[in-house]
Amino acid sequence: VQLQASGGGLVQAGDSLRLSCTTSKRTGSNNAMGWFRQAPGKERDFVAAIDWRGGSAIYADSVKGRFTISRDNVGSTVYLQMDSLKPEDTAVYLCAVSLRSRASAARSEYRYWGQGTQVTVSS
Fold first, then answer.
1. pLDDT score recorded for residue 75
2. How many CB atoms are closer than 10 A to CB 19?
């Protein structure tokens, strides 16, 4: 299974970006999907996750109220709408498919990972 993330870029503080992540097949349709991010020299941190139906989502405190995760009806594409971006949001953003159907912040529950897309927010 391959995941392809896209939508990253260089923006200014306060701007918005929308990330997309598409799976190579409908593997993710019965599984929760999530977004993580990793800044240089730091660990990979949880950002947001959505359950297999797209009806329940969870967020890291640092992005709550600014980011919104969603998925398409087929279930193979997940999106991350990022508003009011801050310089501290700068990182490589990676999408992942969970082993479970419910959303989780635990990195260990994610089996398939994409290569990531760079998001850089200038002040």
1. 65
2. 24
Determine how many CB atoms are found less than 10 A away from the CB of residue 107: 14
Q: What is the DSSP letter of 32?
A: -
Tokens 């279930």 sit on residue:
75
**What is the longest distance spanned by two Cα atoms in the chain?**
39
Please give the DSSP secondary-structure letter assigned to residue 56.
-
Rounded distance, CA 75 to CA 29, Å? Answer: 4
Provide the token pair at 42. Answer: 């730091």
User: Mind listing the pLDDT tens digit for each residue in 73-111?
Assistant: 776 899 999 999 999 999 999 999 998 999 999 999 999
